[in-house]
Amino acid sequence: MSEPVERRDPVERRDPVEHSEPVERSEPVERSDPAQPLLAVRGLVKHFAAKRTVLDALARRPARTLKAVDGVSFDLMKGQTLGLVGESGCGKSTLARTLMGLYRPEQGEIFYGGTAISGLSEEQRKPFARNIQMVFQDPYSSLNPRMRAADALREVLDVHNLGGPAVRTEMVGDLLHKVGLSLADGAKFPGEFSGGQRQRIGIARALAVSP
Predict the structure, then answer these.
(1) Is pTM, for the whole model, over 0.70?
(2) What are 27-68's pLDDT values in tens digits?
(3) Where are the alpha helices (DSSP H) in the chain?
(4) Separation CA 179–CA 81 (nearest Å)
(5) Measured between alpha carbons, how far is residue 170 from residues 20, 132, 177, 183 in Å?
(6) Gap between the Cα atoms of 37 and 103, Å rounded
(7) What is the structure's pLDDT at 22?
(8) What span, in angstroms and rounded, lies between the C-alpha atoms of 187 and 198?
(9) Residues in a beta bridge with 46
């Protein structure tokens, strides 16, 4: 009988960011010194106001706070892989979204290559966003059901102003080929793909900016 695995405290997430119009090409940030962490998190906190019910209002219960991420710190060196383990709802996705800039933390700092990025505006974060990409667990919820696969990939190129208009069509074809999809698949909507194929589109979208 194996010994019980040590249980770790759960961790969590950040606030949705709207896409901006294409601007001048944002060059990827130069990689950090290998001696320092590629990604460092210090005391990260992200709380949410719990939804109040009618009974809460009638009973005059005070507003509650959901502590999704509460004082998370870690270092991730270049070439390392970090796995977060915890039950559903413990804050794993909240932490990932906060690192990505989708949620803004109440406290704490996020450093990429030694540069603090948690307090940057969306425009200031854009060069860093090209080096930090996310593949969502549920590919269907991360894709616009009314947007064809090729358009979903091209949108990433448009936002980051990568390549000219003519070149982007070729880049989209290359991305589809990289993940084992055909150019004809680019004309399909997410609902026409299997779950595995939708996940491939999500991976291709993350690879589009060469993180």
Answers:
(1) no
(2) 445 555 667 899 999 999 999 988 878 777 777 777 788 889
(3) 54-58, 92-100, 122-129, 139-142, 149-159, 165-178, 195-207
(4) 22
(5) 23, 23, 11, 10
(6) 22
(7) 40
(8) 13
(9) 69
